[in-house]
Structure formats: structure tokens, C-alpha cells
């Protein structure tokens, strides 16, 4: 039996499983179930799946919104010897015909035997019926408890994690039982997780690796108390997040950068006694480039409520390593490496400078690699680069996926020596990982490598630009020199004079930051920027929003 399943079962039937569990249903009617109760329900679902013909190694997709239903469902699939894929969920703005086409492509790609369907997506059963997709309703799955887990090997798939933006051209990361166990153990050690005292609070989507692995699988595996709500709950009232941390004495939470920017602004508008965030020891920031300005806004806003600023934990992660790659040292807060912009852009070297150096670039230190992983920086030819030399980041270790599933078949991820190319540029300093940006997004102008995050941070500093909603895009140069544009969201969209003034100020701030003027600035109404199902901005799609040049 895999170490992952062994540990999950041992936790559920032990004292920790009987004492600790997950609370769902906030902010309406909260319900708490112990991990033992989740496991008992999972054994009955697993029994029904096996009795219904599910085979060892089967690929099972899950489409449900309620974490209380999802937790026993995914555990049941693992107990029955299968792998789980969390399907991307349609929203009120989703074109259902397009969603159905994309989802069917995903189901074919992963060779899904079955879809487990739960509220509020029961109505989509007609779509599945129309296309002959086999499914079972979660609320109807109730059989004789599975006597013992189906035996699985460490190299068998446990999770087929859809990558961000997996729609028209889907791709799934094949996470094995060994991968899942190794990364969970690495994060347990690096974050000093304590099942007896920690309380995890999260609204992250369960179809994203941070939500599924970090804030469902890990607490279920280790028996940590969990409070789980949904992304719509958070978006409807962002202050629900600090409210839950306060009421449940949350010690660990996590989110991408844009969410910290949003909640910081909202916390500034409430009374001093609205929350008590003094128990928070880890507020992990990851999943997208970390903005030191947004982090400081969050810690400044949280200080009124007793939140220790050192709780911020900068992290680097990716689905290809199951979840985590590197965690900053605990209780170190936001540590920033200030480097010379000219050396970075032209010389690909991170030469340290004083923070008040004009246009100095600020990169958060993401800490050393997690136990069981190693990170290396190489140049285009594969030669290893030295300390503070910028190059391609690659990672190796037990948590690294053996490959992807794509519409064109399996695709290996590792080279002959086991290294995975992350697709990111960065460098190492004192053993800590620093990420500069995605290689495919780098804007090359006049021999300089300009990282989009520098442009976006400049744009976001302009009043009137929505927090977390600015994209710098490289434009197809054709016969011209390389160019870039800035696309932002603002409530001022549609007001010609206000947009003109806003665009002028954005251009000025960008010139101050990187010494280059954008080809154009596009101001859109809120909700217009293309995003992945997990809420991250999609630079490649934003280029189509820039009017063609003459």
C-alpha cells in the first residue's frame, strides 16, 4: 500500500481523526465533521464505487462545489485505488456550451471512467447525458463500507491536476502516490505543521493545486483542523476570510497575491475590534508573483488586529512538484532582495544594491527548497550558473511529476538526470530561491530583459487601477522592434477624460520604473481581464485586447 493511503487511513482511525476535522458551511450554517466521520463516509462511497464496477487505477473526475461532499468523495476514490481529477467549475458567466466542449476534451484526455457529480452542478447532468458521459450523483452513492483500501503502488497516479487555463488545450499533471506523500511530508517539515494546535483556514478553489493539496489533502492526511469555504463566499465578502481566522483562531492560511491586496483594502474599512488575528503564524503567499507592496499593505492592515507581520511566508510552488518547491524560513516575514536593474536586465546578474537605489528591482526571497527537492539554475545550454546569476530554474526530487497527460498523449517532464524545467527565470542567493518571472513572458527591448511584474507593479501604484488587475503584454513585433502594452481594469472605464488622465499617469509610472514607454495603455471595466479558472491573470490572452497598431 502507498505511504499516502496508509497515513490517511491511520490518521482517520486514530485519536487525531476522532478529535479533529473540517468545518464547512460558513457563513450560513456551519457544520463540523471529524476526519473519522469523513473517512467513514468515504468507505461507504468507495464501497459503492467498487460494487458499481470501478477498477484499480481508474481515472475518476469530480465536479462539485461543497467541500463537505468533495472531501469524502476524493478520499473514496483513493481508497478504491483510483486517481482523482477536479474539473474546472462553471460560473454564472460561463458559456455552458464551451464549458461542455472543454470538459469533454479533458475527460477524453484523462480517460475518465466516471464523473462524480455534486451540488450545485447537478443540473449539468443533462449535458453529460447528452454526450454519453457516465456519472454518479454523490448524494446517491452509499454502499457497504469498503473493508480495506485497494492496494496501489507508489508510482500509480493519485491526482491528475489540471494546469491553469486547461480549456481548449488541456494538460494534466500526473501526481503519483509517491509524489503526493513526498511533497506533503516536505511541507509538514518546512512549515512545522502541528496537528494538535494548528487550524487551517481557506477559501481556495479545490480544482487548484494550492486548494486541493495544501488545504484539503494535507489536513486530511495529517489530521489538522480545517475551516473551508468556497471562492464565491470569499468574493462575495472578502472580510469573511479574516473573520473566519479570527473566530476559529486560525493559525495557517494561504492565497495568491491579488487576494491579499483585496483583503488589505477591505480590512482598512472596518473597526479596530472587528477581528483578532493574533493566532495567525503562517499567511503563505504564492501561486503568482509576490508583490512586496501588496504584502506590506496586508501586514499594515492586519497590524490593527494583532496580526504579527512575520507570519507572511513567501513561497514558490507549482503543480509539477505536487505543490511546494520552496518555503521561506518560518517567522522571517517578507525578506526582499534589492538588485541593480541594469545588471539584471542586460547582464542577467542579481547584483545587490541599497533599497533606495533608483529603479532598484525588489524580489522576495522564497526560502530554500523543501526537504526532498533540489533547485538548480542553468543557462540556455544547460550549464549550471553561479550564485546570483540569473537563468532557467529547474527542480529535481521525489515530489516531481513523471509527466503530463495531454490531448496528444503522455508527455515526459524530466530529463535523463531527473531535472524538470520549471519555465521560470530566477537565481539562488544563500541557498534561497528567487523567481524573476516566466521566461515566455519576458519582454526583450534594446538587449534588456524586462519582467512584466515590474511594469504591472508600476501600473498598480496608480490610484484608480483595480488592485491585482494589471497585465503587461509583449506585442508581436513583426518587422518592428519589440513593444509592450499595459492592460488594466478600472471603474473609470468609459469616462473618456478620466481614462485619458489615468492612461497618462500609468505611462509615466511605467517610464519611471523601467525607463520604457508602453506602446499603449488599455483601460477596461472591472471583470474584463482574462483569468484562469483559479483567478490568475492570463497574459497571453490579454494581448488580443490591445488594438492593432498601424
TrEMBL record:
<dbReference type="InterPro" id="IPR028154">
    <property type="entry name" value="AMP-dep_Lig_C"/>
</dbReference>
<feature type="domain" description="AMP-dependent ligase C-terminal">
    <location>
        <begin position="447"/>
        <end position="539"/>
    </location>
</feature>
<dbReference type="Pfam" id="PF00501">
    <property type="entry name" value="AMP-binding"/>
</dbReference>
<dbReference type="InterPro" id="IPR045851">
    <property type="entry name" value="AMP-bd_C_sf"/>
</dbReference>
<dbReference type="InterPro" id="IPR042099">
    <property type="entry name" value="ANL_N_sf"/>
</dbReference>
<dbReference type="Pfam" id="PF14535">
    <property type="entry name" value="AMP-binding_C_2"/>
</dbReference>
<protein>
    <submittedName>
        <fullName>Long-chain fatty acid--CoA ligase</fullName>
    </submittedName>
</protein>
<comment type="similarity">
    <text>Belongs to the ATP-dependent AMP-binding enzyme family.</text>
</comment>
<keyword id="KW-0436">Ligase</keyword>
<dbReference type="InterPro" id="IPR040097">
    <property type="entry name" value="FAAL/FAAC"/>
</dbReference>
<dbReference type="GO" id="GO:0016874">
    <property type="term" value="F:ligase activity"/>
</dbReference>
<feature type="region of interest" description="Disordered">
    <location>
        <begin position="530"/>
        <end position="550"/>
    </location>
</feature>
<feature type="domain" description="AMP-dependent synthetase/ligase">
    <location>
        <begin position="29"/>
        <end position="405"/>
    </location>
</feature>
<dbReference type="InterPro" id="IPR000873">
    <property type="entry name" value="AMP-dep_synth/lig_dom"/>
</dbReference>
